[in-house]
Amino acid sequence: MQDINLKITDRNGQTHEVVAPTDMSMNLMEVIRSYELAEEGTIGVCGGMAMCASCQVYVMDGAEKLVEMGDEEDAMLAEAFHVQDNSRLGCQIHITEEIDGLEVQIAPYP
């Protein structure tokens, strides 16, 4: 296993190049929280259960690297605010070698 590189644009428009480990069973929401790229209490409100959409991101580059969206994620995004065609839930994007180079922007918090 190896670390991967991600580009994450925060809600203020600043882009951060971060390194994420692939051997800790993390998801993108947890990486965003660990790097403190969103204000505490505004991301991962439901704890990563795909029930709140506070970790919604827009996939700017690398969407083809992601696994297909599951039913729970699709249903949550159908009810969320600020949804775009490239929206995904960060808690449903698992940190694996396959997503190295992924670029996302954190969606506005409702």
Automatic annotation (TrEMBL):
InterPro entries in the cross-refs: 2Fe-2S_ferredoxin-like_sf, 2Fe-2S_ferredoxin-type, Adrenodoxin-like, Beta-grasp_dom_sf
SUPFAM superfamilies (alphabetical): 2Fe-2S ferredoxin-like (SSF54292)
Stored Pfam families: Fer2 (PF00111)
All copies of domain 2Fe-2S ferredoxin-type, residue ranges: 2-110
Keywords, alphabetical: 2Fe-2S, Iron, Iron-sulfur, Metal-binding
UniProt-recorded name of the protein: 2Fe-2S iron-sulfur cluster-binding protein
Organism name: Kaistella montana
